Amino acid sequence: MQFDLDEDRALLKSSTRELLENESPVAEARAIMETSPEGYDRALYAQLGELGYPGLLLSEDAGGMGALAFAAVMHEMGRVAFPGPFLDLAVAVAAISACEGDEARKWQERAAAGELVVLARSESRASLDPCPPATRFEDGHVRGTKTFVPSGAHAEALLVETTGGLVLVPRPESGWDAQPLVTLDHAQRFAEIRLDHPGVLLAEGAAAVALLARSQVHGALGAAACLLGLMERALELAVDYTREREAFGAPLASFQALQHRAADMLARTESSRSAVYRAGWALEHDEPDADYLVSVAKAYAGPAARAVCGECIQFHGGVGYTWEYDPHLYLKRTKTLEQQHGTTAWHEQRALDGRPA
Amino acid sequence: MDLRFTDAQVAFRDEVRAWLASNLTRPFREEVRDPAHDADSLVEVRRQWQRKLQAAGYLAMGWPEEWGGRGVGEVENAILEAELARADAPQVPNFLGISLLGPALIHHGSEEQRRRFIPKMLSCEEIWCQGFSEPGSGSDLASLRTRAEPDGDHYRITGQKVWTTFGPWANWIFVLARTDMEDRYGGISFFLVPIEQDGVEVRPIKQISGESEFGEVFFDGALARREHIVGELGEGWRVAMTLLGYERGAAALRYPAEYDTFLDGMVQALRESGDAERPEVRARLGQLVVENEVLRANGLRTLANLAAGNAPGPESSIEKIGWSEYAQRLTDTALDLLGPQAQLVATDPHARPELDWAYQYMWARAGTIYSGSSEIQRNIIAKRVLRMPTKR
Fold first, then answer.
1. Domain A117-203 belongs in CATH node 3.50.50.60
2. Cross-chain residue pair A264–B378, CB shorter than 8 Å
3. Coil, helix or strand at residue B182
4. Contact A133, A71 (CB under 8 A)
5. In terms of CATH, what superfamily is A208-354?
6. Which residue out of A2, A3, A260 would a mutagenesis test of the B interface target, given it has the greatest number of B Cβ atoms within 10 Å?
7. How confident is the model at residue B213, as a pLDDT?
8. Domains of chain B by range and CATH?
9. Is the ipTM of this complex over 0.85?
């Protein structure tokens, strides 16, 4: 048995950290999210494409590195609260790669190079959990409205879940009929998109169901790993701050009231690490309980990250409630991810039903 | 990264499972319900079970062959523990001797001590208890005040120990006592003391569960032989601290396996009452399943690190907080969802058959106190892992 990552994956993880700390430090990411229309750095996404990041979930034969490497990268992206739809892009690349046909190959290539393709599944602003779609696909035409599409307004193509299967809709020349949904997380731009366009059927029937189920598992693993990175960094910020800040003649970190809460934050973070990497390993090796373990990881990491990132603000006191300090970025992304790729409640039910005998 | 057991480990698990299926005649919860039993006869059941395990080679498996073990690694030990919990096998009466004192004798004891004590410990001819905590020294163990004074070939021990598990049935006790009143750590020595002598009195303590598995032990000039000091004089603290690190992996999979049987029992009872599919019930069950699986993930990580020869990290404190606090949430939820019937004590004819819920509910309160309370574990994490400073 061995818990540590092998050399290749450990190297990928450390070089990703270096890349993100150089190219997307939190200060720079904040500037982009505050000023750019997309909320993320397009040039950096192109660079990630050149380096092969969006195709990470693919097998090694197909140019990727598999689920465990993907989890390690999402973990690092969480640490810097990386802006934009990277997770959704990586999930979309894996989804297209499972489809047949020239159109699928063409778009797989473009998405793997960093062009934005994302899944469009949800139709309710009340829940993003999987639900049978009302959007129709008839005579080569998609009609319906999708909501909370990640960076939808800027997508080059959407993978739309319809009554007829999974359909690829390229961006129309006139652009999308998209309404921006401004949420509390300024580094995640969602859109509600009205679709009345021709599309290409990528998968239908049982194949489409299986493909979307697989995408849901990929998304949940990535979200759980990102949540791990968010809480890991939030814990560091919280403890570092209490070491520097003094009150009543002593550093805050010396007060037991904070020490015990910091210990709980560490327990949640380390437990998430155990669960996330176990799930990533199981998925990569097609273990029979992989889907169950991914649900366990996502269901645990969401509330854990919310608790840790919430405490991070509290540990900072008044400055924790300011835009200038970073803790809010972590709490906001956590909330976004808790609702995406299966809520805690959805994954808890999956875990209950999928519990190995 | 690799979290799979080897083929040999899987084969070992199957072998243990098959052995338990044909050798464990009754799960322990059924023994407890049997009105023919009293506290003494239940100890006898456990003593017989220890002998059965020994005969089959499943006792003290991690010890060297010379001392009755098989020299197996942490993973095999953890697998055995998980299977024993899964089958609800009785706990052996000498668990303190086997998990703590035996390894201490093997590492720090004299050849003489090993030959004198280990065989009878394994055969359960002698039952051991632990004399560490005192009325004034619980979590702050090094403040202990029981003292030992030289008297010819002996030491005379005076003082009081408390929370002595299995004290009422033990023949021997391993005791930390002061041989120097000034030196906080270096003044502590580790003694092996026979209980059946004039200077020792054991009084049972009635616990919240109504049973008296614990006791308090009074020493009034009790005699311990000089050659029954483990390690050198004044090395007691070091010996005690290292013995707390033995078999770190043994519990890694045991608690999740035990809690699986709790969850199975809850689901079974809720199916019978027709409540298992109610959404509010499913929500609470789902959360418990997730949390138990995370405990197992932590355990596998600990085992993997031990198997890879890595030094143990902060995992043990995190695991201790994890399994002990989870047990409270689990049993709280069970008593909520199953209703008042779950409060019935095991010997009540109407008590639920799948588990002794009332007992488990109470016992879960002990887990966050013994072996380093939750507060001590959080201190350890804050100071040793997060390096948060001590207040001046």
1. no
2. yes
3. coil
4. no
5. Butyryl-CoA Dehydrogenase, subunit A, domain 3 (1.20.140.10)
6. A3
7. 86
8. 7-92 (1.10.540.10), 128-234 (2.40.110.10), 254-385 (1.20.140.10)
9. yes
